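Worked problem 6 (solution included).
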Amino acid sequence: MNNLCLYYDMLSPPCRALYALLKVTAIPFEAKKITIMSGENRTPEFVKINPRKKLPALKDGDFNLSESVAMVRYIADKYRGQFPDHWYPADPLRRARVDEYLEYQHLGTRLHYSYLGVYEWKALMKGHNNPKEKEKLELNVKKITHIVQKTFLGDQKFLCGNEISVADIFAANEIVTLECFHRDPFEGFPKLSDWMCRVSESLTPYLAETLEEMFALSGREVPPRYTGKQKSHNYQLMDPLATKSHKHDTADSSVCPCLVCEAFHQSSVNIQYGGRIQLNMALQFYYNPISCPSRSVRIFLKKTGLLVEEHIIDLSSDEQHSPEFLKINPRHCVPVLKDGDFILTEGWAILFYVIEKFSKDIDDHWYPKDLRKRSRVNEYLSYHDGSTRQLFSKVFRDEYLSKMRSYCKPSSEEDAKENVKQMEYVASQLQDTFLKDQKFLCGDEISIADILAVAEVIQPTLSGRDTTKNYPKLAAWVERVKESLNPEFDEVYKQFYEIRRNFMASSDPSSSIERKVIQEMQS
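Solution. The predicted structure is:
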């Protein structure tokens, strides 16, 4: 009898990804189908397994785990001898590349493909028709597809190198969803189309098996592209980690597929701090005090005593789109970590990389080595981007950013109320299904989950909103996290609080409020 049990619904992309991964790696498991459309995920029996009522869910004996990326890490660690390394590499650099995509997908591939997929489903089942909404969703999907092809895939065989990884399985299952609505998601993206054929070949016959139910709903058989029968084209490929540096095409110098750049531009501000860990070269960290992941990573770097040179990127003056910064991160976001010639984006991917590289010098409680404790942290991190970060950020955009950035349009009154309602729901989830009666989100010791979560919970307070007033346990947790992270917390949040004071005191707030604080930091 298998201890490992996967609860799934094949209409869910993460479920299909986990199912195919377990099959292709020959890890024995029991599969239990839970039909979301009939409400099986809301039954008392299933709620005991996953109180958040979501799929997939994984049960290993008396240990239950939700969130698909957390499951990948649990499986990779528990079955390391049986689990082929290329799926989720042990090498810190290669694993960091996979983590980078896995974090990006939550608010990138998964978010925007899901939105368009939901629109198409409503159009098919309910006759929903809103041309402006559809056009916006299609444009967002094209932008995301362009990013995946150009900044992740580039000239590689797969998204994170020349061997397939879990990043490819997750991406493929999001992208393929649109084809069941008679769309070609690869139109205009030939390299990505070839990539899909390679993924299908690597996952034959399991990818096609997971897609049968979804295509059957639209009265179609699984297309050859997903069965391994349609072959990819051959062209010269590169290994981004075997090549230490490479040149950019001068016509498109802002794009660097593997983010390992020989061009490196120093910022005018350098703040160095250090502690017990001695390095030959300081890590380079690019951040902005308004960015939640920036504050989270910055606090962690300070708490762990790493030698770091900081570079402030002024988002209020659009510095993230400057040619110099785009050479560092073509996705024009902060934070970014540069370690020698290795550049990494995405907040918790950076945290994982730092913890892995300097594990001997970093206290275990931040990201425990114990498999089950670590999996609890991973579970929250996988939940974080698509829930806490996404929904608290919507309120932040409505109440703060829309007043500070001309390009950020406020939501309608109805949508703004719905955004607050969704944020309140996530706050209740944090309090009731993660925190419960513990001191911190994943146990009685603070972890990187708390650092990331508290930044998002605090973010809407920039406009004066009290995000925890209806959640006393969550409010007490915020204070415990601050106390545990001080004095570094107050040091990192000093500029954040100053911007909030200036915003609240201004009758006509503008981006100059942020710019003034940034200029003071640079002086």
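Discussion: The radius of gyration is 23 Å.
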